[in-house]
Amino acid sequence: MEFELNGRHQQREPQPGQCLRTFLRDCGAFGVKKGCDAGDCGACTVHIDGKPFNSCLVPAFRAEGRKITTLEGLASDGHLHAIQKAFHDAQAFQCGYCAAGMMMTIATFDDAKKADLPHALKGNLCRCTGYRSIADALKGVSVLEDDVAGKACGANLPNPFTDDIVAGRAHYTMDVAIEGLLHLKVLRSPHAHARILKIDRSKALKVPGVCAVYTWEDVPRRLYSTALHEDHLVDPDDTYMLDNVARFVGQRIAAVVADSEGAAEAGCRALEVEYEVLPAVFDPEAAMRPGAPLLHDKDVLTDNGNIFCDLHGEVGSVEQGLATADVVHEMTYSTSRVQHVHLETHGSIAWKGEDGRWHVRTSSQGPFIVRQKLCYLLGLRTRDLHVFTERVGGGFGGKQEMVSEDLPLFAAMKLGRPVKWEWTREEEFIGATTRHQMTTKVRLGAKRDGTLTAIDIRVVSNTGAYGNHGSETLAAAISSPMALYRCPNKKAVGYAVYTNMVPGGGFRGYGSSQTTFALECAIDDLARLLKTDPLALRRKNVVRQGDMVDSVWQDASDASFGSYGLDQCMDFVESALKRGNGVAKPEGEEWAEGTGVALAMLECGPPTEHRSGAEMRLRADGTYHLAVGSSEMGNGITTAHKQIAAAIVVSRIGAIDIVNADTDKTPYDTGTFASTGTVVAGKAVHLTALALAGDILDYAAKYSGTERTLCRLEDDAVICGNKRVPLREVYDAGTKAGHRFEAKRKGYLSPRSIAFNVHGIRLAVHKVTGEVRILHSVHGADIGRLINPQQCRGQIDGSIGMGFGWALTENMAHNEHGAMINPNLRNYRIPAYADVPPTEVFFADTHDSIGPLGAKSQGECAINPVAPAIANALANATGVRFAHLPFTPDRLFARLAELP
Ligand code: FES
Ligand code: FES
């Protein structure tokens, strides 16, 4: 077949049945991304003869005689296309995975389309940005400031990978060509609970191209947890690589390795599995009852049956607090199971290197813990295994899990060839983890004047078939959300319960989102009973600077207010809603309008051990090299880390290069999760840069014969009194004398500061159809000093967009057999451009005394108040408390139709 690819003539045959996307990637055009397999996400958009197409929907043979352009070919004569420049200047991406398809689509827009982005961009999804920065790019906004030595902290400096992302050169996990690569696919269980009696692999092994089939009988029989935590004891060891019992629809049953993905899939279809179907239980309350089917056997279960973790805490006496209350509110609220939908699916490639060691390239938030787990499972020594990430296309907690690395490495070790496993979008929904579905019963007591006398919650968390993150999310659920309000009597009881559902896992907000939803709805309901303003009730009861951070535990907490900006956040949201934005509700009496507010508070990091290391060295040319163990997954930590380092060594960020998340090249890091990228890894960078700066100054003082106090760093030199000694000269002199200008430090989490977020919503709801329109969205964030304001804004926008999805559009629907019935982006519905109205974002002016350079965490907490603010606005509009997420039109309609 002959065609033109990015201006170059090509002669190459596609494989039978191959789509254009995989064919172009086989041609090395990795700017063509895969986010789904069904034309739903737009990540694979290319131009065919100048028109945009989802290349995953185009048969490869249709390229015959056509001119194909991918992002790599969009620039011409060495100049970026206008849209590439616009994305560059507006920093219109975070992980950047969607950006290739976005830019290819937008590059074809005429003025009419640019003026109607909600329609024009409906086929391109972004999970990270909340679309605000993309809209900015189209408006020609430039957010970038100059990279000035000594002024890095607090400046809007570009993501260090910007040039590669906009040019299509940024390489993600699967963007690599490896000679002799084999492909792995898995057969997944059709049953929610079944024992495997027999697997006949004979037909699968006869499929042309199939090299091997592995079942539970072939892999090491070692229990582990897929959760990535440094403290392995916080998650139950309840999982085998491949098991002889299926506990949810979608569990891996067998792995097939072949010389093409198609052959591996055909091999899976040819496997014959005999199952003994077992009784299943999906509802955690039912799973807790005596006689319920037990998910695990005695190796895993305790005497509590399917309850694998129960937590009880109380301060004061809730019963006394309720007895002395003038008003008591009691209600049950529940949150839904949702999926992370990072646009880059899970995937790993494993091979043996020329150094005789094993290498795993993976899309992970924690390569160091992945290495530990792989060594444990496969009997390797740590030094014989190298785990690393390339650019990661989003995580949100979904990649704080070892789910794609073990089988490729196992197969590579068996077969002696490189093996790749890339998940499909459907597998993400049925086989990866989700946000834990939680049901929270709340009892609140208050005096007539609004003073809280009791807060009591009972949380039941449906952890699904395996307990990864189940106990930690439960602990988070009853920690910071319970500490947000002053109250002498607080009690929480929580149960994490096994059911035959897809497992829960870490997810932005990590348990706190679920109970924040319940408590913030309940506070509003209490305000209605007290006939008082909900925000005034909150102001009366919120914690204040100087308070202890008390949830329900008797033990002292290591969390404290390193800064406090909750009052500023509330002020901003209140005044913005009062001021309004001029957007009126649609005309017609069927539309009701309402306003709602919710607060959230989150500790800056997990209560368990978390540490990170950084290494920095001066190079011969006077620039710096920085190595940090944390993964960059679109959260912007590489930019923040460079800015922190540059601020200390008084350089430009352009003079620092960075490598991250590589067990060979960077110091240890527990993982990028629980909002630790800035406060823990950033602390390690801060300490390292301080140590290196001190070392350079010490040496320069000695070398120049200047008093140390008269020496200071400048961009590429040390100013020693009235002499300017270039860093190159310092380096040369030091190196000749055997001195190495390098430093290495660790950052630890404790003590933890506190971040706050407040969200305000004004919306209209159609009382007949249940349609919701957001009219005004306002957010206040107290995240300490902003290391990079536009990046912080991006994280907040992304969280809010995800919050809209959780509240209004997303839902994992399962049938009565536990099988998901909408495992695709089209029917699951993460928010598209049209679903995410702009939010006014305000940052509290605070400087944290704990976090590096005054910064606090920001990656997670902003999502927490969004759903309850929407729920409270709906209650305000209709007088009906919608207590169960999601608020899709059909569910709202069902309640509204009952109204008189
Ligand atoms: S990968 Fe083609 S539209 Fe999603
Ligand atoms: S930046 Fe759009 S999916 Fe990550």
Radius of gyration: 27 Å
How many β-strand runs?
31
* Percent range of helical residues: 25-40%
Task: State the end-to-end distance.
Answer: 67 Å
Largest β-sheet summary: 7 strands, mixed
Specify the overall morphology: globular
Q: Kindly state the mean pLDDT as a whole number?
A: 95
Q: How are the strands of the largest sheet arranged?
A: 8-10-6-17-14-15-16
Structural class: alpha+beta
Account of the protein in words:
There is one protein chain. The strands form seven sheets. The protein has a seven-stranded mixed β-sheet, sandwiched between helices. The protein has a five-stranded mixed β-sheet with strand order 2-1-5-3-4. It has a five-stranded mixed β-sheet with strand order 12-20-19-18-13. Helix 23 (789-809) packs across helix 25. The longest helix has 28 residues, at 677-704. Helices cover 28% and strands 22% of the residues. It has 26 helices and 31 strands. Helix 12 (367-378) links the parallel strand 15 and strand 16 (385-388). The mean pLDDT is 95. The site of one FE2/S2 (inorganic) cluster has 14 residues, from loops.
Q: How would you concisely characterize the structure shown here?
A:
This protein is α+β, with helices and mostly antiparallel strands and 900 residues long. A hairpin with a 2-residue loop joins β26 (717-720) and β27 (723-726). 61% of the residues are buried.
Record keyword descriptors for this entry.
alpha+beta, seven-stranded mixed beta sheet, five-stranded mixed beta sheet, 26 helices, binds FE2/S2 (inorganic) cluster
